[in-house]
Amino acid sequence: MKQREFYQQNLSGDAFPDGIAEYCQFYHCDFSRADLSEIQFIHCKFYDERSSESCSFYRAKLTDASFKHCDLTMADFRHINALGLEIHDSKVQGADFRGASFMNMIGHNSYFCSASLIRNNFSYANFEDVVLEQCELSGNRWSEVNVLGAKFCGSDLSDGEFHHMDWASANFTHCNLTGCDLSQLDPRRVDLTGVQISHEQQSQLLEQLGLIIL
């Protein structure tokens, strides 16, 4: 499917029989509870600048779905099933991911996560209590993001932009933070166990402790 416009429609996976939507525009559309597994959205727009409103994916099944070069500003991703979700090179400012599950439970207390969220703008997005452990999360902009209670343990967050974010409110242990600006990270308040950084980043962290590196 290419270059179609949808207005105020309730859409399911049946609307994309070939499994691909390219250069489509969705205005005030509702994907709530829809099964969108493995569907690819490429260069699609889900945000209406005139009304400042976006589309809803509330409780949708987005297993192995893909969004590339899309405008997902203000999208409602609450309580989605997102195992294997890909979002690449997209605008996702202000999107709400509360309750989103990127996990596959393999036991009562055992699980693994799978997601590839790369080179996106997540400014002002809400990731409160979201678990994204050992996922591909590099090259993203995380300005003013709510990460209260979120778990990023072991994920690749390299080359990310972090501004006005409360590092201490989330778990970043064992993450790859190489290439990130850590000037706003206070190592006295954040558990940095197993975190990977470069030699150049050492001085940023040590300056927070009052040390001057010569």
Jot down its keywords.
elongated; five-stranded parallel beta sheet; 214 residues; two-stranded parallel ribbon; Pectate Lyase C-like; mainly beta
Helix/strand layout:
Elements: E1 5-7, E2 20-22, E3 25-27, E4 40-42, E5 47-48, E6 53-54, E7 66-68, E8 85-88, E9 103-105, E10 111-113, E11 115-118, H1 199-208
Overview of the structural elements:
With 214 residues, the protein is mainly β. It has a domain at 102-213: E3 ubiquitin-protein ligase SopA (Pectate Lyase C-like), CATH 2.160.20.80. Helices cover 5% and strands 15% of the residues. It contains 1 helix and 11 strands. Strands 2-4-7-8-11 form a 5-stranded parallel sheet, with no helix packed on it. A hairpin with a 4-residue loop joins strand 5 (47-48) and strand 6 (53-54). The termini are far apart.
Q: Strand portion, in percent?
A: 15-25%
Biggest sheet statistics: 5 strands, parallel
Rg, Å, rounded = 18 Å
CATH superfamily of the domain at 102-213, by name, is E3 ubiquitin-protein ligase SopA
Give the strand line-up of the largest sheet. Answer: 2-4-7-8-11
**CA-CA gap between termini:** 59 Å
Can you name the CATH architecture of the domain at 102-213? 3 Solenoid
CATH topology of the domain at 102-213: Pectate Lyase C-like
| Number of continuous helical runs | 1
Structural class: mainly beta
Helical proportion? under 10%
Q: CATH class of the domain at 102-213, please?
A: Mainly Beta
Quantity of strands, as a count = 11
H/E element sequence: EEEEEEEEEEEH
The stretches of 5 or more residues where confidence is low (pLDDT under 50) are: none
Protein name: Qnr family pentapeptide repeat protein
GO molecular function: protein serine/threonine kinase activity
EC number: 2.7.11.1
Enzyme class: transferase
